[in-house]
Write a structure and sequence with these properties.
This protein has 293 residues and is mainly alpha-helical. The protein is built from 15 helices and no strands. The chain has one domain. The relative contact order is 0.22.
């Protein structure tokens, strides 16, 4: 059960990432926020990764192509795409569209990796997605009618596809002999190297990062929790249970966002929160039944 408990952490931290990213969208450009988030994360984790990277350098060098691909999909692209999307759309839409990640994982795994998808997994995705929709719609027809989509949603949808590919490739192509810190450290370094020219060239003519108390807090949070802790937990969990099962935990993001609002914003839990949470929990339970079939 250990991998399943650890997989609870990434959606918790990423829910906060979407809220923070949306909150400072007018103070931090997507590329600059993504770059400085990872730069700070690398600075924090550097004392812990330098020795493992040096010790396992021959393995890193041998698998440099695969590590670069994984670095581009995770460090370079995913968060940048999400932050670009959050410039134009709401955190609600972003969370809803991220729920397509498990669907993309199942489709790609089935079509291109000959992974057998059973009926319980499909049912689990549908039931979990229903729970996400219940929470975000509040079971209010007016909320449903007011849902609208724009170019920001397209960026986030592309980011969802990107993360689905990362999760699948992580399971199939990650060098098994590479330790957790060596893997995370090497992908962070490679991803930042690729992100640096984009940050310097500034192709979207962005204003950059406005340094104040809000953005400093946002950088610290995104560097520690969605970057370091979430990635370590996700990489471990996916390596143990696979992308098709682990990907279903993404559906917990809106539920955790609600719980954060209750704790930090003094919001109250409503009946639709309970219905949505139960639906997501049932969907997750159905999804993990693969190991018993």
């Amino acid at each position: 059960m250990k991998p399943y408990f650890i997989l609870l952490l990434p959606p918790l931290f990423w829910a906060g990432n979407f809220i923070v990213g949306r909150a400072i969208a007018d103070q931090a450009s997507p590329v600059s926020l993504s770059f400085w988030r990872w730069a700070l994360a690398l600075a924090i984790i550097f004392p812990f990764i330098i020795k493992p990277i040096i010790r396992q350098w021959p393995i890193i060098k041998r698998h440099l192509g695969v590590l670069t691909l994984l670095a581009v999909l995770s460090v370079t692209a995913f968060n940048t795409l999400a932050y670009i999307g959050l410039q134009y759309t709401t955190a609600t839409n972003g969370t809803l569209l991220n729920s397509f990640i498990p669907i993309f994982i199942l489709i790609i795994s089935s079509l291109f990796f000959a992974e057998k998808i059973n009926s319980l997994q499909i049912a689990g995705v549908i039931v979990s997605l229903l729970g996400v929709f219940i929470i975000l719609s509040k079971l209010d027809i007016n909320v449903i009618k007011q849902l609208s989509f724009n170019k920001g949603d397209l960026w986030i949808l592309i980011g969802s596809l990107d993360w689905a590919l990362y999760s699948i490739f992580l399971k199939h192509y990650r060098p098994s002999e590479l330790g957790a810190l060596s893997f995370l450290g090497s992908t962070m370094i490679l991803g930042l190297i690729i992100l640096l020219p984009l940050y310097l060239i500034n192709p979207f003519n962005e204003a950059g990062l406005l340094m104040n108390q809000s953005t400093l807090f946002a950088l610290l949070y995104t560097a520690l929790f969605p970057s370091i802790f979430a990635y370590l937990a996700w990489n471990y969990g996916i390596s143990k249970v696979g992308a098709s099962i682990g990907g279903q935990f993404i559906h917990l993001m809106p539920l955790f966002a609600v719980l954060m609002a209750v704790v930090f914003l003094n919001e109250k839990i409503q009946l639709y929160h309970l219905f949505g949470g139960i639906s997501i929990a049932i969907g997750l339970w159905l999804s993990v039944q693969k190991r018993e079939n």
